Amino acid sequence: xxxxxxxxxxxxxxxxxxxxxxxxxxxxxxxxxxxxxxxxxxxxxxxxxxxxxxxxxxxxxxxxxxxxxxxxxxxxxxxxxxxxxxxxxxxxxxxxxxxxxxxxxxxxxxxxxxxxxxxxxxxxxxxxxxxxxxxxxxxxxxxxxxxxxxxxxxxxxxxxxxxxxxxxxxxxxxxxxxxxxxxxxxxxxxxxxxxxxxxxxxxxxxxxxxxxxxxxxxxxxxxxxxxxxxxxxxxxxxxxxxxxxxxxxxxxxxxxxxxxxxxxxxxxxxxxxxxxxxxxxxx
Amino acid sequence: xxxxxxxxxxxxxxxxxxxxxxxxxxxxxxxxxxxxxxxxxxxxxxxxxxxxxxxxxxxxxxxxxxxxxxxxxxxxxxxxxxxxxxxxxxxxxxxxxxxxxxxxxxxxxxxxxxxxxxxxxxxxxxxxxxxxxxxxxxxxxxxxxxxxxxxxxxxxxxxxxxxxxxxxxxxxxxxxxxxxxxxxxxxxxxxxxxxxxxxxxxxxxxxxxxxxxxxxxxxxxxxxxxxxxxxxxxxxxxxxxxxxxxxxxxxxxxxxxxxxxxxxxxxxxxxxxxxxxxxxxxxxxxxxxxxxxx
Lengths: 283, 294
Known about the structure:
The structure holds two protein chains of two kinds. By secondary structure, chain A is mainly alpha-helical.
C-alpha cells in the first residue's frame, strides 16, 4: 500500500513536469499567434519597410534569410554528405576516424557567436568578402555542417548491409554501389537532416551579426557581396534600435510568427519524411 | 582504369572528411591569433580576475571576471529550470505516456527544440520581463532571473530528447528482471532504469550546459547587460556571449578592444570544448557498459 502511494506521488510529479514544459512552450506559440497574426498581411510579406521600419513589410528580410540559408546549404550539404559517405562507407575503423568523429562532435558544440567571430576574421576580413551574403552563408554553412554529417551518417548506417553485398556480388564497384544503391536508399534520412539544418540556419542570429546582417538596406540584395536584412536579425534590430518601440514591436511579432511557422514547417516535414522512411526498412 | 577512378573517388571523399577537423582547427587558430594582441597587452591575471570592464575608457579596463560570473550564474540557474523539467518530461515520455500520447508529444518536443533562440529572447523581452518586473516590483525586468528562466525553458527540449534516448537504450531485460523480483514501476524506474541510463542522462545535461553557456541572443536581449558580479537574482548581468555580440560592432579592427573580444571568444571556446570532451568520454564509456560497441 505504501509503495503504491509513493509510486502514484512520483508519477504525478513527473506528469506535472511534462505539463509545465508543455505550458511554457505552448504559451510562446500562443503569444506568437495572438499578437503576430494581426501584423500579418499580404503587404507585410511582399513589401519593403517604410518610415524607418515602422510601416510597410519585411520582404527584404525574408529574401535575405532565404539567400543566406540557400548559400549555407549549397556549401554544407555536398560537403557533409561526402564526409558521411567516407566515414560510413570507406573509412577503415581506426585512430584517425575516431579523431574525425570527435572533431565533428566538438564542432557541433561550438557556441554560435564563436562561429560569428570566425566568420568575421576569416571571410569578412581575411578573404575580404566584407559583410555580405557570401560571408554569412559560409559561416552558417560551417555551423550546420556537423548536423548534416551526423544525420547522413545515421541514414547510411540504417541501410541494411545486404543491400551493399547484393550490389557488390553483382560485380559493381564500391563507388557504383554507393551511387546506385546505398545513397538512394539513405536519401530520405539524408533529406531529413537537410531540412532540419535549413530550419537551424534560418533561425540563427549570432553568426550573422557581424558577417552578413544589416539593419536596413534600400531594396533587395543585388549580389552575393551585398549586406542583407534577415528575419532573426530583424527581430533583434526592431527591439534594440529605432525610435518607435510600439510600432516596431508589432512588426517584430509578425516576424517572429513567420519565423516560427517557417521553422515549424521544416521540422514537421522532416518528421513526416522520417516516419514514412522508418516504415520502409522496419526500424 | 576503373580501379584508378575508384581510388580517386575515395581520395576525394577522404579529403571532405577532414573538413570538420580543418574548421575546428581553423576556429582555434583564428581565435588564438586574433587574441594575441590582448594576450600581450593585458596580463592574464588582470583579464581573468579583474572585475572592472570598461573597454572604451582611457585607459581601458579589461577585467572579464564579472562577464564570466554572468555566464556562470545565468547557466547555473537555467540548469535548475531545465534539468528537472527536461528530465521529468523524458521520464514521462518513457514510462507513463501511452503510445498515443508518445506519438503526439515526441514530435512536439522535437519541433520545439528547433525553435530559434531569437524567438525565446524576443518573448523574454516583450512578455516575460514585464511580467517579472510587475510581480517583484523591479526597476527593470531584464535581469539574471529572467535570462536564466528563458534560457532554461529553451533548453528543456534538448535535455528531454537526449535523456529520453538514453532511457530507451536501457535493455528491456533489465526492467523485466526487476519486475520479476516484485518491484513496482516506480521502484524499477528509480533503482534500475535511471541508474542504467545515468551516464547518458549526465551527457545530455553537460551538452545542455554547453548550449546554455554559448547561447547569445537570449542573454543579449533579456540579461540586462551590466558588467557586474551579480549579488541577487534580480541583478542585471552581462555574460561573455552577449558582451561579444554587443561590443563587436563598435570595436574597430586592430584595436585592443577587438582583440580582447576574441580572447573572450577563446575562453568561451575552451569552456565548451572541455564540456564536449567530458560528455564524449562519458558517452563512450556508457556505450561500452551497455555492450553497444559502435
